[in-house]
Design a protein that fits this description.
By secondary structure, the protein is of the alpha/beta class. 35% of the residues lie in helices and 18% in strands. It is globular and about 45 Å long. The chain starts with a helix and ends in a 17-residue tail after the last strand.
């Protein structure tokens, strides 16, 4: 699902700790090369890059990448497996700044986690759209109910295997997935007339899209 959403954005950078997003043409594994790429990308109307960490110090790398993302702005930042770099009670400082202030820089966030209960409340409180797959674990259903309402949690529990639903925190209602896609596309445009809006989207990582469309590339 995260790939499905990111593929439809115009300007996207992926934090890819599991090296899964092979559809992205620009694999970067050093902060120096990432900064070179971002300097180039800042002048492009569309780009796709991914950072694959090669050290065990994930949080340190992630903090530096978040600082670059905030400074360059005007992009969608996909963070895979957010519990790997955060805890249920806190976010790393630079990522917290994106969550709190990213709208001023035109940064929107897509993040994934296997369990909402393991995701920082600071992040879920700022999330505009949740895309949630089937769950049966009571603690996870309670976390969904706490954020999205008991009716949503009950519907999630009844979903078929690999089934999902999209819920808008803004509208307080279940919405079509296309609503989320169109909002991310709007926000990821360089010429977006309201570039300082932002959206934070939670995509429970249990399924992926099947096609890729890269609108611009640069091989470093």
């Amino acid at each position: 699902m995260a790939r499905y959403l990111a593929e439809r954005c115009f300007r996207v950078l992926v934090w890819d700790p599991m090296a899964e997003h092979r559809w992205v043409p620009n694999r970067l594994s050093s902060l120096e090369r990432l900064e070179q790429f971002m300097t180039w990308a800042s002048g492009q109307s569309a780009f796709a890059g991914r950072y694959v960490p090669e050290t065990a110090e994930l949080t340190d790398d992630f903090e530096e990448i978040c600082e670059l993302v905030y400074d360059y702005g005007d992009l969608v930042f996909l963070v895979e497996e957010v519990p790997m770099v955060s805890s249920p009670s806190s976010l790393p400082g630079q990522f917290d700044r994106i969550v709190r202030l990213g709208r001023h820089q035109g940064v929107s966030v897509i993040y994934t986690a296997q369990r909402l209960a393991e995701t920082a409340r600071r992040l879920t409180a700022a999330t505009d759209y949740f895309i949630v797959f089937q769950h049966h674990e009571p603690r996870d259903l309670d976390a969904i109910a706490d954020r999205c309402g008991r009716e949503v949690a009950d519907r999630v529990a009844r979903l078929p295997r690999h089934g999902y639903l999209a819920w808008s925190a803004v509208e307080g209602a279940i919405v079509p997935l296309e609503t989320v896609v169109q909002e991310l596309r709007r926000l990821s445009r360089r010429d977006n007339p309201v570039a300082r809006d932002n959206a934070v989207t939670f995509a429970n990582r249990q399924a992926y899209g099947t096609w890729a469309r890269v609108m611009s590339r640069k091989e470093l």
